[in-house]
């Protein structure tokens, strides 16, 4: 299953226009408090976005955030602006093509948001196996995921890994497709 997902999001899709369903597509207009940030995002990062809506609290300054299934980095970069230079955002994705897009624009977004240095990093890995990436227990204030957990064949492992990585009092926010 994961190979099919990797091929679809890495090779088949070249932009959100190529999606075979609109189940995970949101309206074009972001919330008012994020509109200024969205105008600063690189066009290619936005074009390769396949999520179903960024969900995160509004007070994020200085936090360390993990994005599960970060894709082209759109949500990572929005959160990068919100956490400021004192915070950091880490994206994890299994798709080489998406990671290449995300990594290509690190400095572009640091400049766009007025940061002296980039406060983001991207890791190749599986969200079911975050322990393989060497993240310390209790190392993230917030974990987000946008239309990705539904694609995992082992959702229990994803949630167990997220719980392990969250600091005491940390929170997880996700937007996803669910059917019963």
Strand order of the largest sheet: 3-2-1-4-5
Q: How would you sum up the global shape? A: globular
Radius of gyration: 15 Å
Distance between the termini: 19 Å
Order of helices and strands: HHHEHEHHEEHE
Q: Would you write up a description of this structure?
A:
The protein has one domain (2-175): 3-Layer(aba) Sandwich (Rossmann fold). The protein is 32% helix and 18% strand. It has helices spanning 2-12, 35-38, 43-47, 74-83, 96-104, 106-112, 155-165, and strands spanning 64-68, 88-93, 120-124, 140-146, 166-175. Strands 3-2-1-4-5 form a five-stranded parallel sheet. Strand 1, helix 4 and strand 2 (88-93) form a beta-alpha-beta unit. The two termini are 19 Å apart. The model has no long low-confidence stretch (mean pLDDT 87).
């Amino acid at each position: 299953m994961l190979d099919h997902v990797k091929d679809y999001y890495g090779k088949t899709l070249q932009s959100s226009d190529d999606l075979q369903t609109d189940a995970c597509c949101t309206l074009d207009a972001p919330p008012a408090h994020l509109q200024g940030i969205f105008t600063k995002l690189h066009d290619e990062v936005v074009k390769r976005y396949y999520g179903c809506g960024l969900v995160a609290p509004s007070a994020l300054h200085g936090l360390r955030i993990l994005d599960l299934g970060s894709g082209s980095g759109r949500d990572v970069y929005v959160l990068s602006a919100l956490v400021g230079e004192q915070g950091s955002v880490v994206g994890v994705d299994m798709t080489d093509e998406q990671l290449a897009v995300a990594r290509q624009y690190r400095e572009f977004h640091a400049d766009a948001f007025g940061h002296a240095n980039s406060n983001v990093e991207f890791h190749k890995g599986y969200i079911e196996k975050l322990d393989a990436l060497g993240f310390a227990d209790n190392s993230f204030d917030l974990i987000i995921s946008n239309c990705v957990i539904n694609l995992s064949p082992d959702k229990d492992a994803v949630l167990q890994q997220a719980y392990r990585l969250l600091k005491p009092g940390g929170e997880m926010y996700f937007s996803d497709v669910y059917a019963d």
